[in-house]
Amino acid sequence: MESGILHLDSLLSHPFLPLLLLIAAGLLLGRLRLAGVSLGASGVIFVALAAGRHGFTLPNGAGVVGLILFVYCIGLSAGPGFFRTFVRRGRIYAQLATALVFTGAAAAVTAALFFGLPADLAAGVFAGALTSTPALAAALESLPPGSAAAVGYGVAYPFGVVGVVLFVQLLPRLLGKSFQQLAAEEAQGSAADPIERVLVEVLNPGVAGRDLSQLPAIGEANCMVSRILVGSRLAPVALGRPLAIGDQLLLVGRRSRLPGVVELLGKAAENQDFDLDTERERMHVVVSSPQVFGKTLAELKPLGTFGVTISRILRHGVEFVPKPNDEIEYGDSLNAVGERKNLERFAAAAGHRSRTFDETDLISVAVGLMAGILLGLASVELAGRSFSLGMAGGPLFTGLLLGHFGHVGPIKGHIPRAARMLLQEVGLILFLASAGAQAGGGLDAALAQFGPALLSAACVVALLPLALGYLIGRKIFGMGLLESLGAICGGLTSTPGLGAISSQTDSETPVISYAAAYPAAMILMTIAARMLVTALS
Q1: What is the Cα–Cα distance from 25 to 100, expressed in whole angstroms?
Q2: Are both 65 and 206 inside the same structural domain?
Q3: Does residue 33 belong to any structural domain of this protein?
Q4: How far apart are CA 181 and CA 167, in angstroms?
């Protein structure tokens, strides 16, 4: 062998280089867009199926490591909203998600019995048609090694993605509505009360000579005075500064509350042209304190209590404009606007510590993963059968608990979003690559024997929950069309579906209902997948 020369055979025999090549090819495939739809990370499983068909295998344990990382991060992400979704005002979204998931599972079982599909293919069809990788992970955990669940997933996945996207785009048209009309009707009939600013001239002798702390009516109206006009610029109001006739104050509050406060102070100034340097008056605050989470904005009264306005909430990777009755959840990232001192006071009350939330406690990650693995290995006897959560259930449940409580003793349940998404994506890719490679060897045989049946089953499982979800959301829960479409996307964990809606309207309603239904659906998918395998085995 000549030194310094790398031969193709030696490269391909390396345990990791072919894996990285497969992952890169799968991610490139996932970036391709057709009619605005892409596969994303799921492109890896299609490349892995093709590679497995030609004998490609992964290093031992790579898929299990990926699975553990993926489901643990999923649990951390869903934990803050999952349990509260069932016990608070989001209960209807959890009920809708339950109906969607178990309708899909029932359809998969029925199709399997009708077409004679084995349990592994049926479980894969269920996971693929509902575009749920956690469901595929739970199914593979319940099946013997070498099962064909990934084949069913690969066949059904396009039906799930395209089905939801077409449904949410075509349904309004079939009902004779456009997304613009729906948003306009919602705005007209909504109880939403937007936050606005108005420059007010002080004319009331009753408030002259008093400072803002002596005017509780402003805070009770959930409004705040954030600035005073000094010369040609708006400056912060000094603590204890008495008001004077002719002062011009920048008043911030809900539209419905502003007129009463304006009348108390004087009148709206004639010139309402002003500039604000909002970048220095804004802070992203991550909530971890019970003083804040579990309360609605109306209960918290951030303007009156802390002197800040909550203009945006980031939850489960989705950002939306909040309404007064929106409840703040643990782990929410709040876009707070106000004076620096007020922002810092609110951040302290919310439990935000910038360094803590920007750093990853690797000891907590290691201990959390270890606890999840031990929990998954533990088994109990139920009805004469041994049952365990496995590597899909144990880390998932541990992540849920840590995400819900924030910490258990010194073990923290918080991983910064960027770090958590990286771990989750790496785990997902390793798991998909392993599942696809293992199933690739049986791809030809499965398609030859069950090809038409798989396609028919995928179509039924993808479409039936959509139709039922619409009827339940509209007829039973009385949701508006935009709200029901967003909840259906969340109940089917379909981010492409939400993207299709968001591209057509600026309304926040679909986003909020998606975020409310998503956590429950994501966890229920794993439960339903295991039940499906048990029912058909």
Answers
A1: 33
A2: no
A3: no
A4: 18
What CATH code is carried by the domain that includes residue 198? 3.30.70.1450
- Cα-trace Rg, the chain: 27
CB 330 within 8 A of CB 406: yes
Encode 137-167: b = buried (16+ Cβ within 10 Å), e = exposed. Answer: bbbbbbbeeebbbbbbbbbbbbbbbebbbbb
How far from 233 is each of 200, 229, 381, CA to CA, in Å?
14, 6, 73
Same domain, yes or no, for 136 and 249?
A: no
**Residue-wise pLDDT tens digits, 69-115:** 887 887 787 676 656 655 555 678 888 989 999 999 999 999 889 98
412 and 499 in a common domain: yes
Give the structural domain span for 87: 59-184+373-536
Torsions phi, psi for 470 (to 5 deg): -65, -45
Regarding whether 170 and 75 lie in a shared domain, the answer is: yes
Q: For residue 365, is it within any domain?
A: no
Which residues are paired to 197 by β-bridges? 252
Q: Which residue has the tokens 């048990």?
A: 534
Same domain flag for 257 and 335:
no
Q: Indicate if 389 and 528 belong to the same structural domain.
A: yes
Instruction: Work out the angle at residue 373's Cα, subtended by the Cα atoms of residues 367 and 375, and round it to the nearest 5 degrees.
Output: 100
Average pLDDT of the chain to the nearest whole number:
77
Closest listed residue to residue 73, CA positions, set 129, 131, 133, 127: 133
Whether residue 226 has pLDDT greater than 80: no
Q: Which of 175, 195, 156 is nearest to 323 (CA)?
A: 195
Asked if residue 100 lies in contact with residue 492, where contact means CB atoms within 8 angstroms, the answer is yes
Residue with tokens 């008093």: 210
Structure tokens at 468: 């039922």
Alpha helices in 472-508 (DSSP H): 481-491, 495-502
pLDDT of residue 207: 86
Q: Is 247 within the bounds of a domain?
A: yes
Instruction: Give this prediction's pTM.
Output: 0.59
CA atoms of 237 and 239, how far apart (whole Å): 6
Residues 494 and 386 occupy one common structural domain: yes
Phi (first) and psi of residue 215, to 5 degrees: -120, 70
- In sequence order, which residues have a C-beta less than 8 Å from that of residue 21 and are 6 or more positions away? none
Element (H, E) at 93: helix 91-115
Task: Read off the pLDDT of residues 307-327 as tens digits, 9 standing for 90 and up.
Answer: 777 767 777 556 666 767 777
Q: Within a domain: residue 13?
A: no
**Half-sphere exposure of residue 308, counting CA atoms within 13 Å on the CB side?**
30
The number of distinct structural domains making up the chain is 3
Whether residue 202 contacts residue 208, with contact meaning beta carbons closer than 8 Å, is answered with yes
Q: Distance between CA atoms of 44 and 54, rounded to whole angstroms?
A: 16
Q: At which of 358, 385, 403 does a domain end?
A: 358
Q: In the structure encoding, which two tokens stand for residue 158, read together?
A: 């396009």
The pair of three-digit structure tokens given for residue 202, joined into one six-digit string: 């002080």
Residue 172: half-sphere exposure toward Cβ, Cα within 13 Å: 21
Distance CA 226, CA 101 (A): 47
| Domain endpoint, select from 268, 298, 328 | 268
Contact (CB, 8 A) for 182 and 226: no
Same domain, 429 and 307: no
